[in-house]
Amino acid sequence: MAHSLNEFLAAATADTIRCTNQFEIELNTGDEELNKIIEDNKIILFGQNLAIPSRGIQYADVSFKGYNMTNLVPTSLTMDQEHSMSVIDDVTGLHRRVFLKWMNNVMNADIKGDSLFEGYRGVNDGSYLRLNLFAADNKTISETYEFFNVVVKTVGNTTVDYNGGDTAKFDVTFGSTFWRVLTKNGSISNSTVANQV
């Protein structure tokens, strides 16, 4: 632990501190048409306030020969399955429309087109979201969080103000059935997963 400003700066220079703003978001919606829109427009999402999820283990109490042993046997693995983030919008609004269309894949309330509540109505096992965390150079991916079977639940509003000055952004809430952590070596373009933790 740094005990002075000089020690703190030395530690920061030595790449021992993770910066919370060094990340990017990759999407795969599980929908071929929508994925092509993302690819053709070279959409790179810059996010804010996406919390790295937590995990836990539930334990059961066991009685043995009259003794009650608390929290002895692990019974299940628990993990955060509700996630939220703020996404910075682009000037055309395309980023927000991508999330809206992704959400419509589950339930499409196209009332005017007589397709009331069409949609897949389930979890698309081809959808996932990756959160890439960068090293100090902002190029090398140090680790990746992968969220599987992602379903977009809410797409928040974007506030438009004549006075302006603020960055336009919207909140997204999504669910996942499972997530894992991967370590990755190399540049941003290197998609080879080196090790699974």
Can you offer a commentary on this structure?
There is one protein chain. The chain has 197 residues and is mainly beta. It has a single domain, classed as Pnp Oxidase, Chain A, CATH 2.30.110. Helices cover 15% and strands 41% of the residues. It contains three helices and 13 strands; from the N terminus they run αβαββββαββββββββ. The strands form four sheets. Strands 1-8-9-12-13 form a five-stranded antiparallel sheet, with no helix packed on it. Strands 2-5-11-10 form a four-stranded antiparallel sheet, with helices on one face. It has a two-stranded antiparallel sheet with strand order 3-4. The chain is globular, with a radius of gyration of 21 Å. It starts with a helix and ends with a strand.
CATH class: Mainly Beta
Count the strands? 13
Structural class: mainly beta
CATH architecture: Roll
Helix content: 10-25%
Q: Quote the CATH topology.
A: Pnp Oxidase, Chain A
> For the CA atoms, what is the radius of gyration?
21 Å
Shape: globular
Mean pLDDT: 77
Strand-residue proportion: 35-45%
Note poorly predicted spans: 186-197
List the secondary-structure elements in sequence, H or E. Answer: HEHEEEEHEEEEEEEE
Spatially, the strands of the biggest sheet line up as 1-8-9-12-13
Q: Estimate nothing, just give the exact number of structural domains.
A: 1
Number of helices: 3
Q: End-to-end span in angstroms?
A: 26 Å
Largest sheet: 5 strands, antiparallel
